[in-house]
Design goal:
about 35% helix, elongated, two-stranded antiparallel sheet, alpha+beta
Length: about 60
């Protein structure tokens, strides 16, 4: 599950946004990844996770 939070008036949300109760709008992206798709080798698994992170950035890039 990935959570993306939209920018507020051109500024990226941060801890102070939450602390001061400034309203934010977020979206959640949920997908199922079968364990059989996750590589067993440590280096291959690291590449797999890095790829997922890049995909997350591409999905939520629309928030910038």
């Amino acid at each position: 599950m990935n959570v993306g939070i939209r920018n507020i008036n051109g500024e990226k949300p941060n801890f102070n946004t939450i602390r001061f109760g400034i309203p934010v709008k977020g979206e959640i992206f949920v997908r199922r990844i079968p364990m059989s798709d996750v590589p067993k080798d440590e280096q291959e698994c690291a590449k797999f996770v890095h790829k997922l992170y890049k995909e997350k950035d591409e999905i939520f890039d629309v928030f910038d």
